[in-house]
Amino acid sequence: MTRVRVxxxxxxxxxxxxxxxxxxxxxxxxxxxxxxxxxxVLNEKGERVAKILDVIGNIESPYxxxxxxxxxxxSGKVYLEVIEKPQRARRSRRK
Length: 95
Description:
Elements: E1 3-16, E2 20-25, E3 40-42, E4 48-57, E5 62-68, E6 77-84
Antiparallel strand pairs: 1-2, 1-6, 2-5, 3-4, 3-6, 4-5
């Protein structure tokens, strides 16, 4: 069974590069350990609105570039949909 976790990503800044969305991401998220490329962005209603293409900028003020999945304009606060894979059961070693 896969579990989905929703994390606040940041706020949409503007539309750039022919319909791509630029999102000002929170600076407390660690994009070095967990690469969000390819993950889905949700709006405040929980609808899937974009897919992350790249993380740009520096650590203090990161930006996320995303491709919209809907025809309407993406705006406001957005959230990141993280799918957690189930952990495999570990077998104990008997001697």
